[in-house]
Model the fold of this input.
Amino acid sequence: RLKKAKLRVEKAIKEKKIFALQGPYPIIRRLLRARGWVERKLPRRSRQLKQQPGGQKKQQLQKRAGSGGDKQGEAVPNPREREDEDKKEDNEKDFEDSEDSDDIHDLMSFLVKDQVPNFLWTICLNNVDRALLPRIEVVNRFPRLYALCTKEGLCQSLQNLPWFEQVDLDTFFPRCYRLGFMGEHEAFIEDFRLTAARSLLKLALEKVGDRPVGTEQPPKSDKEPGWRRSHVSHPVPSTARPRSPLYPQLVEEALQVCELHLGVLGHQDIDRKTPSPCRTCIAWDRFLQEFYRVAHEGTRLVLSREQREQCQDVLQRLEEKLPQFGIEGNLNIWILKPSAKSRGRGIVCATRLEEVLQLTQSPTGSSSRRCEWVVQKYVERPLTIFNTKFDIRQWFVVTDWKPLTAWFYRDCYLRFCSSPFSLCHLEPARHLCNVSIQKRYKRLQPDPRLPPDKIWSNTQFQAYLAQLGQADSWQRVIVPGMKAAILNALRCAREHVGSRKGSFELFGADFLIGKDFQPWLLEINSCPTMSPSSVVTRRLCANVQRDTLCLVLDRKDNPTCSIGAFELLYREAPVSSCLSVGLQLEVTGCSLK
Done:
């Protein structure tokens, strides 16, 4: 066995096929072993990759070989991981013969413990010894991904989009504000108010007789585990005794605000020195309280024929100016997200301005300070399947930042919520599609036509679109929209990401789909989970890992080799230098009379 292990190790060292693995990636381990790679296993306690001292004594090696492998201080494969590996299906021929066991891999790992790995696949770059990292040829992570893979960083990066592309950010990214910064804090308040005015006009037009349409009665009990109820308001029609009548000029004030906003959108205020007229034209505190009564308590609104015509005219002009008019809905719901958390942790929805400000009350700081919260306009009119909300997890790989080179994966999957979609109830079972959130609601099934694991492949989605008579929407609208949004995000963040030759990274972008099939980028995740949570993800996650290895390893020696479902998204022409974009650029001037 020692002789056999030595032969394999010598061949692997000669061919530069030593790898290290950190994290739950049994597929990567099995695929690399099948290619003749030898793993340098990591100590189980710390799982930290460090340079080992050389000069191991010969008798230690002989003792190790004679005893069949002393596993003390070495990584012992997790039995559960072994079971998962046995269940995985792969088309490639297995490198190990029937006599191979974990013992021989442990032995080979001992033999290469002084070798610098040629390939590292890690779940966290900070676990790698800084002195050793530059010596590893291929690493699956990039440093400093804050500008791309945190909610605050992505929000800030995309604000620089006009420097790279003449594309309106509001056409693919729901409006987002970093509440830790004074300018964006005030901009959010103004946006909330303007959206409330538009929503009031929409509600006024949707009245049928004296009853509001589209309202639902709340269930007797809607408590959900793990949801911060104190910060969630529910739009529920009032069934209690009648309250005082609405402020009679409410609709007129909403029309006034919207007319002023149209003037701002048309640049009619370009020379003004005062704050936006939308901030001071009406008593906003009173207006918002009256709006809440109409939107969330079902209070009646009566319109004259003239007012109805005015509302229709104003809303039509606003729709022509505002790209997100179609996804706004009419309840003015916003979603608050911790700026640097993942898996849906800490996310809450709010319908009242005071709720948002109370939740995020912390002293606003300068631009050098990172904020704790971002607030984003909630997509109130998403495309649903069987009245169930879903999002799309879309993979892509970046193999270089300078020049920017990105690859798009043609397969993806849909994640469904566990309860039917409703804007009257804002619990996470209806609104947060994260698998880590929805696994709390395994017993809930939104519709019998959806699978119990609440996951669809993109092929199942395309079949559903064909049933709707929208078979071409996938290739004509959705896929091009996702590609464009990903590329725009990469261009905006590239100057702030740590670029390292030989590194690559697999990312997971999350998208919502609007009723017009337009994709909306929500966030981009580094190190997306590869743990199979369903039959679909078991197959797709294995495939994307296999194809990623083909892309970053095989393609080096054979540019025409198969890279599976990957396709080139963008390759930038090499340039001699790249100018950094400053965030504090300013244009000054004076008005021309």
About this structure: The longest helix spans residues 182-206. Confidence is low (pLDDT under 50) at residues 53-99, 208-241, 363-369.
